[in-house]
Fold this protein.
Amino acid sequence: MYLDAAVRLNPVLSPSTEVFLLSYGAGHTVVEMLEDIVSRTPDVVGFSCQGWSFRHYTLLFDLLREFLPEIRIVLGGNHVSYRGAELLHAYPSVDVVVNGEGERTFCDLLRYLVDGIGSLGVIPGITYRDESGPATTEERPRFKTLDEVPSAYLPPAVQLETYDIALLETNRGCPYACSFCYWGGAVGQKLSRATLERMSVELDQIGAAGVHTLFICDANFGILEQDLEIAHLLVEVRRRHGAPRTLHVNWAKNHAARVGAILDLLHEGGIHSNVFLALQTTSKTALSLAGRDERGRREMFDLADRLIREDRRVGCELIFGLPGDTLDDFRASYDKLFLSFPSVLVHPLWILPNTSYDRRRRELGIITLRPGGETDYEGLLQHDTLSREENREGLALLLGEEILVGSGYARTTIRCLAQLSPWTATACISAFERFVATREEVLATGLHEAFQRIRRQVYFDRALRSQLRQLIFEDREKSRGLLLAFLDMLELNPELKQVCAELARLDCALLPRSELAGEGSALSSHLAPFDIHEFSRRLLLSQSIGVEWVLASPATELTLRHPAGYARFRGEAIDLTGTWEGTVAESRPMAAPWGLTPTPPVQEEPV
Ligand code: B12
Ligand code: SF4
């Protein structure tokens, strides 16, 4: 969208250039993409490349050249920048790779490629082919302020009404240089920022179009004083237009006071926002090898504590496989953080191009692999503090975590076990892997195969996420049956087992309903022999609460609400906004005491 805006606002290009923004989901085939592109007979095709999309694009390059021999193929984006020589060699159909910011470079390229004005060698910021092979031109200086970058959201902007999420930059760059990240190092450590005047109009456009979610792409929202002002603007827009209602950002790691103030402002203004503490590891050695220090961590923990006490959404992030971390360190970190935060996001370590880990392979003993598959991310095979065998175990743990916690399948059930039984979260996950290996059900064999696959390939293929979710969501009754059988074989005190079984029923009842077609939402009723909604809430907030509390609480009837239309989405790996999960619309106490037979019929009302 930023490149499109740059072309549209370029006085030379705009009268004679038509730009089509084509965006494909994970379900699109190569032929569908090919036909869609070819039908527009373009002169130039630009690919915006990330590790998650690059593989799909590589399958198109030669095909495009076959169908449109005169076409010019240009690559840009994080995943390809500064790798021009290697990529031009590997993909002969590609003409140019753009390094770094693309707006001005793309316009210069279009003028040359379409009009033949000038020569490639004088365009800064590209790698192209000259007579002697790949040649890289001088670095293009970065924009000093974002106001110089044509806005994707100022008129004449693209029609925003069909979007459910808007991505906006309020500043570009990151002052840090974490070893696993290609941002501070790549985009540049100096921040270029947009003025409040510009953002005020941009946010208004987004709100007026009714786009319900905003993703601020900044590396550290809250790092600048003006970020508080941006939050004020956002709340004002929400009040005026009723949108956006949700904000996603990467929060500043070192500015707890401002982050707290922004969060309070958003909360009061009716804008939901999650806070994820980007911890990545709890080991000092790993943290230091990752190029980070502990500055600001204590304050961020204090902020998280306060927010959790106020019942607000807070989580933290961990990366598995960081140099300096061992498997035991990772298990211990996960188990501890799982009990302190309502949610823990875990990522496998990818060695991204141009990062410091990428350059320090020999020093840290890093060996990677990039098996065939959908994504182009280089996975870790082993390093000095993580053997291949430990890596295998850890990846199986990540997979189990994704199945039981990440997908929502046993989200509160595992929390209850981790808080009230001797089982830690990671012990539950490992027990589940052993359990599915002993079962015959289709779901169990599917999950067992996924565990075997990750152990064999020692690589977390992102496509696995959507495959697993499809398996679990396909038939929620069968999923529930398997989970209950798992609980049944755990050694637990009988009362706790019954509580966990009720939680498992509710967790499964809240999974997306893949059978609901159309639009709108459906309501269903769910009975439980205790106040399960309040109990789950307290579990998520890690408030200490025992089985006695459960026994004393009344039976409840819940009304659950599920959005329809999940089937259209199921191939995608990420549900950023948690759109398809069920929610508890209402919880009503009933007169019945504990002991109610806990297999109530599910009543569904029509969409
Ligand atoms: C928004 C975002 C997401 C969203 C994606 C939403 C979407 N559909 O686009 C979500 C939250 C889903 C996401 C998830 C992930 N993300 Co992310 N994300 C971002 C983020 C913050 C902003 C991207 C953006 O739009 N930027 C604004 C645009 C304008 O900048 P840009 O893309 O760099 O484009 C400029 C230039 O690169 C160039 N350019 C780009 N394309 C083209 C094309 C042409 C033809 C030309 C000439 C120039 C050009 O010109 C542009 C203008 O200057 C970036 C960080 C960042 N600030 O870029 C990370 C980033 C893209 N994410 C990254 C990663 C690793 C991930 C995850 C894998 C994390 C994880 N472990 O799970 C997942 C994978 C998602 C998946 N689909 O599987 C990495 C990608 C690295 C790589 N080599 O692929 C980044 C760069 C952050 C980082 N850590 O380094 N992400
Ligand atoms: S991880 Fe965050 S703080 Fe570190 S370099 Fe990347 S964007 Fe900056």
User: Anything to note?
Assistant: Residues 174, 176-178, 181, 183-184, 219-220 surround iron/sulfur cluster (ligand 2) (CB under 6 Å). The radius of gyration is 26 Å.
